Amino acid sequence: MEPTRNLALELVRVTEVAALAAGRQMGRGDKNTSDKSAVDAMRIVLSSIRMAGVIVIGEGEKDEAPMLYNGEAVGTGEGPKVDIAVDPIDGTRLVASGNLNAIATIAAAPRGAMYNPGPFLYMNKIVVGPEAKGKIDIERPVADNLRAIAKARSKALEDLTVVILDRPRHDALVAEVRALGVRIRLIPDGDVAASLMTCWGDSGIDALLGIGGTPEGVISACALRGMGGEIQGKLFARNPQELQKGEEMGYDFCKVLTIDDLVSSDDVFFAATGITDGELLRGVRYFGSGAKTDSLGIRGLTGTVREILATHRWDKLNTLSSIKY
User: Fold this and answer.
1) 233: exposed, middle or buried (Cβ count in 10 Å: 0-12, 13-18, 19+)
2) In Å, what is the CA distance from 302 to each residue of 3, 209, 225, 270, 312?
3) How far is CA 132 from CA 18, 92, 148, 221, 241, in A?
4) How far is residue 63's CA from residue 134's CA, in Å, rounded to a whole number?
5) CA-to-CA distance for 299 and 304, rounded, in angstroms?
6) Are 95 and 24 in contact (CB under 8 A)?
7) Distance between CA atoms of residues 218 and 121, nearest Å
8) What pLDDT is recorded for position 131?
């Protein structure tokens, strides 16, 4: 049996250019400019990849997002038919403020394989790495899950570290985790990077808990397919009106969404490139004649995770590309 084409390697080119373009804006306080830089660069390289891609998770609807909007066709139009999920910057505020763990991300899966969250942008999540896979249940109490994770990882509760988004909605969750003696990493943004860190041995992160983005959950699920981790989630309604709208549209806010619900195929591809430094990836390092990037390319079918260190030369790139580096 011949191996199928590995799109992950080509998708790394997409996240590399997004990171190179956005990284120039680090610490400048302008998240909109950094996001636009990443989107514009990402779209140019996406158009060169031999695939018939459709954006299913993008920057928004067409009227509000002129590029990489939901439903936009990307690629050459030939080759495999795939769904594409993009987050040109997972952590735009992290880039604007010069904080850690901002990454550029993209995922691809066979047409129809990705969960469509519609207009419902939030979900309650629990994410763990391979050792705790099969040991968690989002419907059980937080304490039960943390004890199960500790047991699976042969750790005391006091040795666990969990990531939680730093939001007022998590005050009760944070208090409960602290009462158990578990260490907490509160992050301002960037729950895709945090989800992947649960599977990244050197990160020191054992789990992600709490309410974050639904699109980010789908993107994370694609990476976790290849990294051997697990994600469970439940859609979260911010108010009664959103809950009613969801129920009218056929969404079940009580249903536990497993990794199979979020992406129903192993034949998935994921790529990410660091924009700012972090536990998962190093950020873009600029020097006089170019820059260096640190990326991941993940293939779900084989479980191969590649870390790709690249050096980019401006004198070469600027003669070949319309992207302003």
Assistant:
1) buried
2) 10, 28, 10, 12, 28
3) 33, 30, 8, 15, 36
4) 41
5) 5
6) no
7) 11
8) 97
Three-state SS for 80?
coil
How far is 273 from 14, CA to CA, in rounded Å? Answer: 9
Q: Under a CB-based contact definition with an 8 Å cutoff, are residues 7 and 302 in contact?
A: no
C-alpha neighbours within 13 Å on the C-beta side of residue 95: 30
Residue 197 burial (10 A CB sphere; 0-12, 13-18, 19+): buried
Report the candidate in 109, 84, 91 with the shortest Cα–Cα distance to residue 226: 109
Note whether 82 and 46 are within 8 A (CB). no
Residue with tokens 């249940």: 137
| HEC readout, 202-234 | HHCCCEEEEEEEHHHHHHHHHHHHHHCCEEEEE
Q: For tokens 């789908």, what's the residue?
A: 218
**Which amino acid is it at 73?**
A
pLDDT at 62: 64
Amino acid at 81: K
Q: Are 164 and 186 in contact (CB under 8 A)?
A: yes
State the DSSP code for 68: S
Cα angle for residues 38, 41, 44 (degrees, 5° grid): 145
- 73 phi-psi bin (left φ>0, alpha ψ -120 to 50, beta other): beta
pLDDT in tens, the chain (325 residues): 344 788 999 999 999 999 999 999 999 999 999 999 999 999 999 999 999 999 999 987 766 767 899 999 999 999 999 999 999 999 999 999 999 999 999 999 999 999 999 899 999 999 999 999 999 999 999 999 999 999 999 999 999 999 999 999 999 999 999 999 999 999 999 999 999 999 998 899 999 999 999 999 999 999 999 999 999 999 999 999 999 999 999 999 999 999 999 999 999 999 999 999 999 999 999 999 999 999 999 999 999 999 999 999 998 888 877 777 6
